[in-house]
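#struct-help
A.M.: can someone run this one for me? Single chain, 399 residues.
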Amino acid sequence: MDMEVANASREDMRAAEAAYAAARSFVPRIAELAPGMRAARKLDDALIEDMEKAGLFSLLVPKRWGGAGLGPHEACKVTEIIGSADCSAGWVTGFYILHNWFLCRFPLEVQQALYERRNSVRAPAVFGPPGTAERVEGGYRVTGRWPYGTGAWHASHVLVPAMVGEAMHWFIMPRGDVEYVDDWHMEGMSATGSITIAAQNVFVADGWHCDINELTSADNYPAAGLHDDYVYRLPFTALLMVSLSPCLGALDRAVELSRERLATSRPLGFPRIKRAPARVRWAEVYEKARLMRLLRDAATDEILAGVRAGEGASPLREARAQLHLVHFVHGTKSALRHLMDGMGSSGYRSDDPIFRMTQDVSILATHAHGPDYDVVMDRHARSLLGLGAEPGDPGTRLT
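D.P.: on it. Structure tokens below:
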């Protein structure tokens, strides 16, 4: 191995271990704050500031801007750790991490302005529905209303979509240029504060908007060559598991908690751990958690191997990656439900952590499934079978 490459690898390993340690240090604090954050429907302000100072949101930011320049496996691990304490906190962490990757593929002068005094930018990124963009001198006037702005409450900027001709572009707007609509009232993932963002005739200069499909592709977008960090030569599909890894952290924590309950629970005076069906149910979920980790890591490795082999993007490769994603979330959700089914009525107390995790993952799964599980699965089935897209399918492909 080349000495420079070896040194860089060791540097990355040290940076990754430091990030994992930092994430673990927040777990007790997040778990303690979680009930209050759910009630407030937003994450704690001081918590977010401290997590940013610890470098948790700059994992994928290039080293040239003061970030760690790490990759998808490291980012998945961090969001998994945070998710073991609270899915909402893990979800927002994952999005802040990912959205910095998007921002660092914009033109260099935009990046220089964004990262001049910081090594991470907190920004929600909404995929739809697109707003309108009117061409004016030097840029566009953008108007729209975009739901599910996860991370908006603590953002400095937002990434919102609008149509430029036939292409959907992301437009970067400062927080002060948009309005928030406090409409996030959900039984699960309530602390994400995934509220609606609105803008009326906001000016966005040229350079501060990019075609979303080009922005997320390793093959097409020129800015992908601006950084030496390997993660900027990857397509967005390599990062799909980052924001969903809190599911795995929640499942592992639920397995741990349910193991403790096997030893202490005595329904009708008979120890649960002495019941064979209870032991079998727990073992099934224990193994399901291991399988979900193997699936997540193998799915990411499959994409990385394709990139190293010089394979370009294709509908088939994307469909396979998306099916891995959906199966990962659906498998995690079903495993948590299986645990709940064996706990009796006491497991459904509103303050029960496993019940909360089950609710959170059920809501989180809708992100991977889209508005309709069957529609999303059929979209990928059509790709695998070579049938092409369903006429009128509004699904945006991220290649």
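A.M.: thanks! Residues 3-40 form the longest helix (38 residues).
D.P.: also worth noting: The beta strands are 131-136, 139-149, 157-164, 167-174, 179-181, 195-205, 209-211.
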